[in-house]
Amino acid sequence: MENVLRPLIVVGGSALLTLVIGWATDRLLRKADERHSETPLWGLLRRGRIPYQLVLCAAMLRGSYDEAKVLERHSAGIGQTLTLVLIGAAAWLVIRIAAAIVESTYTRYARVHRDPARVRRVRTQVTLIMRVVAAVVGVVAVAAMLLTFPAMRAAGASLLASAGILGIVAGVAAQSTLSNMFAGLQIAFGDMVRIGDTVVVDGEWGTVEEITLTFLTVRTWDERRITMPVSYFTSKPFENWSRGTPQMTGIVYFHVDHTAPVELMRERLRDILRECPAWDGRDYGLAVTDTTPNTMQVRALVTAKDADDIWTVRVAVREQMIRWLTDNHPYALPRVNTADATLAPGFQRLDGHTRDGEPPRRAHEPPRTGRG
Which has the closest alpha carbon to 181: 209, 225, 211, 207? Predict the structure, then answer.
């Protein structure tokens, strides 16, 4: 009977105590979250209840397993397994707690500061810092797991002795990866590009969606994702429309006939912008910037508060101006002239008559006079 009750009490008691402590801790965090609604820290800490319970259960089982007297032949292996589970769960819990603290700090910072550029910069830095913390904790946890094996302890001295050579070999082999990692840190703390920035890379316009230590993802306007190494942004030029102030000036070109009413087009542009909510009211203008033998180029300048609104304003101006020209001034649209060209005095036309209507004369024929 004792052989049945002893393992039942040890294993069942550890599991039951884990559930009770986990439930009590979760209740305390929930009440703290309700009392302190100004910070999301306590609510975010509740995300770590699963690794927290694993740590409790593994620790209690590891400490009381010898008293269970179960599978004594395999006690060393079971104890080793519980130790590995304990280390892994503890690393998982540390990452969850660090993420909760960092995210809570970022949320409070975003509430206080209204500058979108500064908020995006901090968000980018926080994201990369969390990835570094997770990587460091993971490496430490794996190293701790390996050191629990006696063979790995004996090999520790030789590993340390050859660490310099291995470091050189690893650095040469992972040169591209290391350069991307350093480029990611340079982007995070150099404020070159941030999550949420509007950029143009390789002729593609989009928004930075994700930044990691090795790659960066740009979401284009048509919902495509462009993934590129972060070293691209430290070695090649690119356009960042969100750098500094997000205000932008847009250009709309029109190709119209030389007879187009430029002054009326300027007045129509003003009316279109007044009815467009995306126009920020800072500036506008319309001028003839170029001419060709058949058309002239008219440039309209408009302004908006950010890249999304400047796109909306340009589309509205282009569409409504073309419609207005079509309805009210169709002669101003580009056309191909098919009328007879004006000839120079005395120049012979294809129908055999000169400009004044006289039939052509031969080269040796004297000029005609009014006399017969």
Answer: 211
Residue 225 sits at φ, ψ, to 5 deg, of: -115, 125
Q: Specify which of 57-71, 146-160, 197-211, 284-298 reaches the highest per-range mean pLDDT.
A: 284-298
Question: How far apart (Å, rounded) are the C-alpha atoms in residues 221 and 304?
Answer: 18
In the predicted structure, residue 201 carries a pLDDT above the cut 90:
no
Cα(356)–Cα(123) distance, rounded to whole angstroms? 80
The first and second tokens of residue 78, run together, are 């079971």
* pLDDT for the residue numbered 97: 87
Looking at residue 349, its pLDDT comes to 53
What is the residue type of 332?
A
Q: What is the pTM of this model?
A: 0.48
Distance of CA 220 to the CA centre of its chain: 9
Query: Residue 281 and residue 279: Cα distance in Å, rounded?
Result: 6
Mean residue pLDDT across the chain: 76
In the chain, what percentage of residues exceed pLDDT 90?
A: 16
Which residues fall within 8 angstroms of residue 115, CB to CB, at 6 or more apart? none
Q: Which amino acid makes up residue 168?
A: I
d(CA 282, CA 55): 60
Edge-to-edge strand ranges of the sheet holding 279-291: 248-256, 296-304, 279-291
d(CA 61, CA 11): 7
Segment holding 7, helix H or strand E: helix 2-7
Identify the DSSP state of 255: E
Residues 6+ apart with CB under 8 A from 50: none
